[in-house]
Design a protein that fits this description.
- The structure is a single chain.
- By secondary structure, this protein is an alpha+beta fold.
- It contains 11 helices and 12 strands.
- It is globular and about 60 Å long.
- Bound molecules: iron/sulfur cluster (2 copies).
- The site of one iron/sulfur cluster has 12 residues, from helix 8.
Length: 332
C-alpha cells in the first residue's frame, strides 16, 4: 500500500529521525550537491538531479582508521574503530542504492569486513525516485530503473503536492512516521533513458582482453582517478600504518586500480605497467571479473564517470565499441 506525505510531513519526519540517528542526506557544498551527515533538516536539498558523489563513503569512507594498537606499561592493546550510532541515508537515487547492494557482495562475503557489515546493518536507506534523468544516465541498461524500489527500505516518489511513500522492507516500515494517509492516485511515470548495448558484454570483454583497443583508449587517460572516486561501485583501497608515540593506526583510504604502482608487489613485479593495462583493469573489474565472481556487472549506469572524466572517456562508448569490435572480428 502506498502512503502520502506532504513536504512538511517529510521535513518533520527527518527532524524526528535526526534525534536518534545520524542522517546522511543531499546537501549543497559550494556549487555541488553531495551526501553528508546533517545537523539540521533545513540543509537537506530535495530538488537535485544527481549528487557529485554517491553515499558509498558512509560505508567505505575516503579515509578511515580501522583500528589502533597502543603500547602502555608493556601491555599491547588493540582498539577497533566502533560504529557509534544507527544511521539513515535519505534521498539516494535507485542507481546509488544498487551500488550499495553491489558493494555488499565483496564486503559481506566471509570473512566479511567488520566495519562495513556493522554500518550496513545499522543503516536504513530512504530512496528518492528520479523524476528527471541526466543525459549521461543509463541505469535501465544496467539492471535498475529511475523508480526501482528493490535496494532501499523506503522509496519516495515526488508527486504533485508531496511524496508517495512506499515501505519496501520491515526495516522501512518500522521507520515510517505515524498517521500518513493512504495514497490511491497514480504514481508518476519515470523518465525514459537511452539504451546501451550491454548484451554479451562479459564475453566481449573476455574476447578483447589482449586487443590494442585498450592502449588506444588509455592514451588520453590522465590518471586523475576521478572516475573511480565518483563511482558508487569502485572500492579499491590502500592501507597504511602510521606510528606516533607508542601508538600505531591502520588507515584505509580510497585508491584506484588505475594508479601507477597500485598492483606493484613486494618483490618488485608489477603485472600492469602500461596505461592500457590499468585502464583495462578498471573495465575488466566492472564488466568481466565482478560478473564472473558475483553474477552481476559492477556498474549501475549513474553516469558520473562519463560526466566527470576530463578527457571524455565514456563507459557507454566503451561498451558500444566492444560490441562493434567483436562483431567486426567475427565478420557479422
Ligand atoms: S562506472 Fe561510471 S556509470 Fe558505472 S557506476 Fe561507476 S561512475 Fe557510474
Ligand atoms: S577520469 Fe578519465 S582521465 Fe581520470 S583516470 Fe578516469 S578515465 Fe582516466
Amino acid at each position: 500500500m502506498n502512503l502520502f506525505a506532504s513536504k512538511d510531513d517529510v521535513i518533520r519526519w527527518l527532524g524526528e529521525l535526526l534525534k536518534e540517528h545520524v542522517v546522511i542526506a543531499p546537501v549543497r557544498v559550494q556549487e555541488q550537491t553531495t551526501f553528508q551527515p546533517i545537523s539540521q533538516v533545513e540543509d537537506v536539498v530535495f530538488d537535485f538531479n544527481n549528487t557529485a558523489l554517491s553515499p558509498k563513503g558512509w560505508f567505505l569512507p575516503p579515509t578511515e582508521t580501522l583500528f589502533s594498537v597502543q603500547r602502555d606499561d608493556g601491555k599491547v592493546e588493540l582498539v577497533p574503530t566502533k560504529v557509534e550510532r544507527d544511521a539513515v541515508i535519505f534521498g539516494l537515487h535507485p542507481c546509488d542504492a544498487r551500488g550499495i547492494a553491489l558493494m555488499d557482495s565483496p564486503f559481506l562475503q566471509e570473512p566479511s569486513d567488520a566495519l562495513y557489515r556493522e554500518r550496513r546493518s545499522r543503516t536504513a536507506l530512504i530512496g528518492l525516485a528520479c523524476r528527471q534523468a541526466q543525459p549521461e544516465c543509463f541505469c535501465t541498461s544496467m539492471g535498475s530503473a529511475p523508480d526501482d524500489p528493490s535496494n532501499v527500505d523506503i522509496l519516495l516518489t515526488e508527486g504533485e503536492d508531496g511524496y508517495i511513500v512506499q515501505a519496501v522492507t520491515e526495516k522501512g516500515k518500522a521507520l515510517l512516521p505515524k498517521g500518513l494517509a493512504e495514497y490511491k492516485g497514480k504514481v508518476p511515470a519515470p523518465p525514459k533513458l537511452e539504451a546501451v548495448p550491454t548484451k554479451e558484454v562479459v564475453s566481449a570483454m573476455r574476447e578483447l582482453f589482449n586487443d590494442p583497443y585498450w592502449e588506444q583508449v588509455a592514451d588520453r587517460c590522465l590518471h586523475c582517478n576521478i572516475c573511480a572516486y565518483v563511482c558508487p561501485t569502485c572500492y579499491c583501497f590502500d592501507m597504511r600504518d602510521y606510528a606516533d608515540k607508542g601508538k600505531v593506526e591502520r588507515v584505509r583510504s580510497w585508491e584506484s586500480c588505475q594508479s601507477p604502482g597500485f598492483s606493484l608487489t613486494a618483490g618488485g613485479y608489477d603485472p600492469r605497467t602500461t596505461k592500457g593495462e590499468r585502464l583495462r583493469q578498471r573495465f575488466c573489474h566492472k564488466l568481466l571479473y565482478f560478473p564472473e565472481q558475483f553474477q552481476d556487472v559492477a556498474c549501475v549506469g549513474c553516469g558520473r564517470c562519463v560526466r566527470d572524466c576530463p578527457v571524455n572517456i565514456d563507459i557507454r562508448e566503451v561498451i558500444s565499441n566492444l560490441k562493434q569490435v567483436t562483431e567486426a572480428k567475427s565478420g557479422s
